[in-house]
Design a protein that fits this description.
The chain has 140 residues and is mainly α. It has a domain of 92 residues. It contains 5 helices and no strands. α1 packs antiparallel against α5. The longest helix is centred in the N-terminal third of the chain and has 29 residues.
Length: 140
């Protein structure tokens, strides 16, 4: 090895990958929102609990990141992946513990939550860091 190692700067910016991540995020986000509203309103409404309570509990958390998702904010994409994992767990539970139609709805929730998580991670990974968040270079 040579005494002087060539320093390689990591290259994380990729508009192509960021665009793919953005599309996956939008499909997962709006797909989850539409699925939840349709599921608990018409397709398989709950029998023991009021519909409005289930709709509020599952759809209101998805409304908090709506503005950041619409405006392509990187920070929102960074933390919405954590939110999507709650929907992933709900989908897995429904997929394995219910019958027929609800199994398909649970499978759809799993797929859409994974699209949301993977897409938001890709978008956050491949977009440039805003200038106000950059750390100053270390002094040698």
């Amino acid at each position: 090895m040579s005494a002087q190692k060539k320093k390689r700067e990591p290259r994380f910016e990729s508009p192509k990958h960021a665009r793919i991540g953005r599309v996956l995020t939008l499909i997962g986000y709006f797909g989850l929102l539409a699925l939840i509203v349709n599921w608990f309103t018409w397709l398989a409404p709950p029998e023991r609990v009021p519909r409005s309570m289930v709709l509020a509990a599952l759809s209101i958390p998805l409304l908090f990141p709506l503005r950041g998702i619409i405006h392509s904010r990187r920070y929102t994409h960074q933390w919405i992946g954590f939110l999507s994992m709650a929907y992933f767990l709900i989908g897995v539970d429904v997929w394995y513990n219910h019958q027929a139609l609800e199994q398909l709805l649970g499978m759809s929730m799993v797929i859409l939550s994974l699209c949301l998580m993977v897409g938001s991670s890709m978008y956050a990974r491949y977009t440039p860091t805003p200038l106000d968040q950059l750390k100053p270079p270390p002094e040698d």
